[in-house]
Amino acid sequence: MLIDPEAIKRSLASSGLRNTPQRYAVIAFLKGQSGHPTAAEIFEAVNGTDPRSSRATIYNNLRDLVQVGLVREVAMEGRAARFDAKDLRHYHFICDRCGAVEDVDWYDVPGPAAVSLGKRVLRECELIFRGLCSKCAKRRASPKDSKTKGYTHGKRTNRVRYGCPQ
Prior knowledge:
The chain has two domains: 5-74, Arc Repressor Mutant, subunit A (Orthogonal Bundle), CATH 1.10.10; 88-148, Ferric-uptake regulator, C-terminal dimerisarion domain (Dna Ligase, domain 1, 2-Layer Sandwich), CATH 3.30.1490.190. Helices cover 34% and strands 13% of the residues. It is built from six helices and five strands; from the N terminus they run ααααββββαβα. The protein has helices at 5-15, 21-31, 39-49, 55-67, 114-117, 134-139, and strands spanning 72-74, 82-84, 90-95, 101-105, 128-131.
């Protein structure tokens, strides 16, 4: 993946963050990834090329980059969070079995009606799909397997979670 160093510097400057070597290394690494690495994986990669970066520095830079919106944190139930710095808007699919995080093409999803928010102020809305990735779906034992109960191949089920559109 081609990384534009000047674009990274402009992104950091426009966000109000200083362009430190460690911060630049974190965002450059993420922009060069097709996957969604954990903070520990980012630390290992960045520290492998520039051993000046401590674990705390990498974690603090990730926090700062997430707060200004240059990096997205993908929360994983019971697993380490993953990070993403792709420029194209997209959703995520998280496999319940292996934990793989895959990108799903963006499409418009209606936001909640203002009346349902009450006095809350909405900052963002994130849609995450959960289920079995294509590899795990192929390996599933049988429809009676308790780990795959409620899963279908492209068909709707009667399971609705968190108001996902039917």
